[in-house]
Amino acid sequence: MARKPHGTIRPCTECEKPMRPKTWKAEDHPETVVHATSGRCSKCNYAHIARLEKLGLKPTAPSRKPKTKDKTARPCKGHCGKMLRNKEWKTELFPNTIIHRGRGLCYTCYNEEYGRAERVIPVVTPRPSYEENLASLRAYFASRRPYREALGQTFFPDPLDSTANRPENLVPIKHGTASGYDMESRRNVEHCDPCIMAKRKANRESHHRRKQAKASA
Known about the structure:
It is built from five helices and eight strands. By secondary structure, the chain is an alpha/beta fold. The longest helix is centred in the last third of the chain and has 24 residues, at about 195-215. The protein is flat. It starts with 9 loop residues before the first strand and ends with a helix.
């Protein structure tokens, strides 16, 4: 159910045009203007601020009296009739009282009147077994193989096989290239001079391309 907007249509204190609250839509209330503050519409409020600025004054918000809280225990409106106190009030200052839940009722009467919120129990799915995890991983690697072949990859080690990560089974490093520098970094190997020079050249070219693209944009 849609929430009913609060407020009423009332005339502006200066131009006497009908004003609507800010939360109301213009198409629902034609021939109305938006209420700004202090009983003035937006246009009159801007003119009021301009007049004050010419006089060297600052516009101030309308003064409002602070709300006073009556710190007295009140009886519950339910069937129990017990005295209620607010949550922030100490028990020592208000003995023989219980906490106010809402709508003038204690927790027991509130739950009986409006019902307790249903507890959402999360659905726990069983964890897959070790064999099921291996099968799903191998199916994923098999589905990605055509893309790897299209990119030119020819060596496909089994990522789930520990023997594939042995030095004799790894793809040889292409020295003198930027990709060779990256492979040395991944394998935690000392960088050779040809790979360092190739990486520096690739970085300079990439920086030059970005600079040209930024200048042309």
